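User: Before I run my own analysis I want an independent prediction to cross-check against. Here's the chain; please return only the structure tokens and, at the end, one sentence I can use as a sanity check.
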Amino acid sequence: MSDLDPQPEGPEEQPPGAIGRPEERLSGGPEPDRGTGTPETDSAPSAVPPAPTPPISTPWGFIDEEGAVHIRGGRRLGERVIGKIGRRTPEAVLAFYAERFAQLERRANRLETEIRSAKNKARYLRRVSELIEEVTHADALGDFDALLDRLERLQDEVRAFEKTQRARKEELCALAESLADSTDWRGTTEKLKALQSEWKSLGALPREQEQELWKRFRAALDTFFRRRDEDRARRKEQQERARATKIDLCEQAEALAESTDWAAAAGQHAALMAAWKAAGWAGRGEDERLWQRFRAARQRFFERRKEDRERRRRELQENKRLKDELCEQAEALEGADDLDAACERVKELQARWKEIGPVPRKESEAQWKRFRAACNRVFEKARRQRPRRRRTEDSQAPVAPGSRENIERLRESIVRDQGHLDRWRRAVGEREDGTAEALRAKIAEMERQLAAKREELERLERELRSARD
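Assistant: Structure tokens:
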């Protein structure tokens, strides 16, 4: 589990057989000899054998007539003999045992000071218990009731702290277990790190308790981090697949960047973008790099298409200007005196109209109607004057019946077909889908039909002129 420390510190232990710290062990005079009743003393032996000792009493003990030193014990300890006076004076013996008790008090003071300043008080439970045991069996004179009461209160305090500490570690175990199945990998990792940091700050419980709770805590952590590592491996595999897919999409987009088949290429770019969104994330850094490559290829194509559309827009506007001029010229022919020449000029304008090409769609129909109306007015005016001319011509030369009517109908058909043809050409120039090809085929067929009609019109007009001559 790489995110967390492997193991908290275990509880401190004292060396076997040691009670308290080495510097805290009792020191002073030699122990009294309880077997013989003749204690060793620090003072020089008396030259004269001691006389029977009168009873001497203190609040904590007394010396009987035989020289035995008794501890009163109080309410907590029973009375017992702790030594004999031997060759020392009663005062020296009492002072010796009082100093022993004072040493115990000093050790208790130092231990209490350490506990008060310690963050982890539970580690002192063993030392307090051992000192209580030592005090209970100590050969010393003093207020054992007060000292033992004090040490037991300290022991209760340490045990209460240990109980609180254990309860908190159990809470940490429960919290870790509640997070073990989380899928918020980043947030939960931070939470579990905070839990372990708190665990370490609490310090160690007694070894058996600590190991039991640590195994539970560590199992919850391992469950989460194992799942997180599995998810990382799975996502890494997905990112590799996404990366390979996006590299392929970049290559396809780059292949389309120089295309001039605007409609087909635009549709393919739309499909590539949909595939890009579905491919997934390719990883930090790599995904952004591939996106910039893919985006550059798309921008290249769409900028070129935009430039082409702008060029075509300018062409359409220029075509409109030219066709407006043709409209004006056709309208000017309505007042011509030589209607035959005017009709010929209209035919030339129609041919020129065909050559110019499409205009903007929203203006195409109105412009065509204007031009066609002007042309028709010239042809209609010429047709109305023909009956007078026909009577004159009929008197001069025979003309095949119905020839003039055929010519007029043919001219009207050509004008009508030319209108369809112009409209189709405009439409095919603006379409970018699959119908453009079918419309081109339709235009080619109409052009063949118009060519045939024009040839027929020229033949009829030649015959008419020959008949007149």
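Sanity check: The mean pLDDT is 81.
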